Amino acid sequence: MKILFQLFIASVLLTSCSQQKARKPISQTNGSFIKESIERNKELIAGEEKLIDSIIKQDTLKEYIASSKGYWYKYETKINEESILPKKGDIAYFDYQIHDINNKVIYSKEDLKPQKYVVDKQNIMMGLRDGIKLMKKGETITFLFPSHMAFGYHGDDNEINPNEPLICTVNLIDLRQENSNK
User: Fold this and answer.
1) Nearest CA to 45 among 65, 74, 71?
2) How far apart are CA 60 and CA 17, in angstroms?
3) pLDDT band at 181, cuts 50/70/90?
4) Could you say which of 53, 69, 114, 178 would form a disulfide bridge with 89 (CB–CB 3.0 to 4.6 Å)?
5) pLDDT digit string (tens) for 131-171?
6) pTM value?
7) What is the mean pLDDT of residues 101-124?
8) Helix, strand or coil for residue 91?
9) Burial, 33: exposed, middle or buried (Cβ in 10 Å; 0-12, 13-18, 19+)?
10) DSSP for 56-85, written as a single string
11) Contact yes or no for 117/132 (Cβ under 8 A)
12) Burial call 100-132: b when 16+ CB within 10 Å, e when fewer
């Protein structure tokens, strides 16, 4: 019995010491999905920019400004005097409404209610996050956001569809500097 046990242990040790082979992945990619996704996104952005450009060309009464972030805006109410602009940590009080690209109301000011936003410390729509920092207290600006600056490929799970460019009119009601909030 003792010999049988020793043979069993020896066989376990010999078989467990054999060299293991590395497992290979079941499937391999060649990067084509990523390349196709990039092309699809380029086409989507180009189409949205074409729509936005046609809106700008039709609105001959206002001057639109192209932002460095990839959206456009026009002043509805502009404050010409020197004033502070929102910066990180300041609290911006604003109201806004959202329209689709055909100017149909998606969310009214009443739907969205006045907002309190701690600049760059809270999560809001990417375009608004940047656009609010361009505003002075009392100004009203209309922003034309391509979908990647709005709610992106996901939408808002309610009224805003995936990949939907938006028109947002924002009124900066008040601005409190960070060090005056304490």
Assistant:
1) 71
2) 80
3) very low
4) 178
5) 999 999 999 999 999 999 999 988 999 999 999 999 999 99
6) 0.79
7) 96
8) strand
9) exposed
10) HHH-TTS--EE-TTS-EEEEEE---S----
11) yes
12) ebeeeebbeeeeeeebebbbeeeeebbbbbbbb
Amino acid identity for residue 109 in this structure: K
Q: Give Dmax over CA atoms of the chain in angstroms.
A: 102
pLDDT of residue 12: 62
Predicted confidence band at 8 (pLDDT cuts at 50, 70, 90)? low
- Alpha carbon distances (Å) from 91 to 41, 75, 111, 151, 177: 34, 21, 21, 23, 6
**CA-to-CA distance for 102 and 52, rounded, in angstroms?**
10
Task: State both tokens at 100.
Answer: 């689709």
